[in-house]
Structures are given as C-alpha cells and as structure tokens.
Design goal:
Length: 257
C-alpha cells in the first residue's frame, strides 16, 4: 500500500471532500486523524473507516486549536506525516453585504486556520526529522471569481499563494506542499445551491468541459497521489480537479459545436 506506516491529519474530515480523503488515505494504508468542529459528522467518518481512527473536535478558526490537533495526533500515533488542510466555510455575500463578523469568521477558518495548521505540522515534521507532506484545499475560485462569494474567493486566492510560499521555504527540508483546486463538487457545502432546483445543477454542470459536477472521491484520488512518493518531485504546485472548468469558456457560453 502506497501510504503504509504514514499518519495523516485531515481537517474538515467530517464531511464532503475531507471525509472522502480520510477514507481514501486509510485505504492506502495511512493511520487517520480527523479534526472537525462537528462531532456527529466526525463520528460518522470514524465509523466508515474503522480501526483506530482518531477524531478530534476542534474549531480551527482558533490558533490554539490548530496546535492542539497536531499535538493530539502525535500523542495517539507517535508522529505526523501528512496534513490535509481542508476545513473551510462558504459565505454567499458580495463585499458590500459582508460584515466584519462575517469576514472574521471566514478568514479565520479558511485562511488563518490553514496557515497555523501548516505551521504546527511543519514544526512537528522538523522535530521528527522526517520531512512531510501538506495539501491545502484551494478552489477554482483561487484564480476564477464567481459572483456573490467575495470573501470566500479572497481566502481561496490566499491559500494558493500561501502554498507557493510554504513550498519556497520548506521544500528544502523534505516537506512537499501542494494545493488542489476543485471545480464544483457534490458535497454538503453545495447542497444549498442544488436545493434551489435542478436548473442550478444543470447550469453548474455546464461550467465544466466534462459536462457534470465532480464527486468528492475524485478530489480524494488527487490528494492520495500528491502525498504519495510517486509525486516526489512535485511541490509548490496547484492541481486542478475541475472537469475542465478552468480550461476555457466555451461550455459555459453555450457555443460548443
Ligand atoms: N464542494 C465544492 O464544490 C468545493 C469546490 C472547491 C473547493 N472546495 C473546498 O474543499 C474543502 C472541503 O469542502 P466541502 O465541499 O467538502 O465542504 P463541507 O462543508 O462538506 O465540509 C467542510 C468541513 O469543514 C468543517 N469545518 C468548517 N469550519 C470549521 C472549523 N472552524 N473548525 C473545524 N472544522 C470546520 C465542517 O464541519 C465540515 O465537516 C473546502 O476547503 C472547500 O473550500 C469545495
């Protein structure tokens, strides 16, 4: 198995892409710790994986919690090899509708949480002297904006550049850092949009050259590759897992021949 004897910590592992990633990395042989603010969803993921999977209830918008989840993972499994920085929240507001409270909530979760989880993971990798792997969950909204989600787009743009900065500083220590930019994926984060009616799903599908939205497992497959030794020369990169969303505009413009 590709990830035999590895220990992976996945934030936001209670749902969607984080859950699918936890399941996939476990299938590849990794010990799994998941951190999530939702204990019921976290317990569901633990049940799906079985074994001695660790769930840590944490609010990752707080720096002390980002340090604690690394410490608890190491206390349970003795080390850390992989951090999947995946927890995030969506905010459906334009900038003029966004309050300071909204901004703090989304930036503290998506950007500050990602930043400090990486910091404490890297300190642990250094202590071990083993190197390590970090995947940050970016988005096609890291480089293409969509209307009505200004603060979310700002955080995802920041995550992409943070990934490159981390890779510049730490790849020399054997710590590979990459990010993944998914297109629209079928997860609870998008459930609200899809519940507005089938036309939303149809329109979302058309944004992707492949003609459909993605599944969480398809993002998890990309994580599994990037953290494996097969990706040993890949660092500081962004992998799109977007069904061709970012390949061009033709499908969205309805001028496919
Ligand atoms: N679903 C998509 O279409 C899509 C597209 C591009 C990028 N992404 C990104 O993928 C990642 C996962 O998204 P998803 O669609 O699986 O979302 P989701 O809402 O299904 O899962 C997010 C998880 O993060 C947890 N979480 C949120 N805030 C937290 C906090 N402060 N502390 C701890 N846990 C917290 C939630 O409890 C939830 O379990 C996110 O970074 C998201 O921005 C998703």
């Amino acid at each position: 198995m590709k990830l035999q004897n590895r220990v992976a910590l996945i934030t936001g592992g209670g749902s969607g892409i984080g859950r699918a990633t936890a399941v996939r990395l476990a299938q590849d042989g990794s010990k799994i710790a998941i951190a999530d603010r939702n204990p019921a969803m976290g317990a569901e993921t633990v049940n799906l994986i079985g074994g001695d999977t660790l769930f840590i209830e944490a609010d990752l918008s707080k720096v002390s919690e980002t340090e604690r989840i690394v410490a608890e993972t190491v206390a349970k499994f003795g080390k850390l090899d992989i951090l999947v920085n995946n927890a995030a929240v969506m905010l459906e507001k334009t900038a003029v509708d966004t309050t300071e409270e909204d901004w703090d909530r989304i930036v503290n979760t998506n950007l500050k949480g990602t930043f400090f989880c990486a910091k404490y993971a890297i300190l642990q990798f250094r202590k071990q002297g083993t190197g390590g792997n970090i995947i940050n969950m970016a988005s096609v909204n890291s480089f293409f904006a969509e209307g009505g989600i200004a603060a979310y787009c700002a955080t995802k743009g920041g995550i992409a550049q943070f990934t490159r900065a981390l890779a510049m500083d730490h790849s020399i220590e054997g710590i590979r850092v990459n990010c993944i930019a998914p297109g629209w994926i079928e997860t609870p984060m998008n459930a609200k949009f899809f519940s507005m009616g089938p036309h939303i799903r149809e329109q979302a599908a058309k944004l992707h050259a492949i003609g459909r939205i993605g599944q969480a497992e398809e993002v998890a497959n990309a994580v599994a590759f990037l953290v494996s030794d097969e990706a040993g020369f890949i660092t500081g990169s962004m992998m799109t897992v977007d069904g061709g969303f970012s390949a061009g505009l033709a499908p969205a413009m309805g001028i496919v021949v």
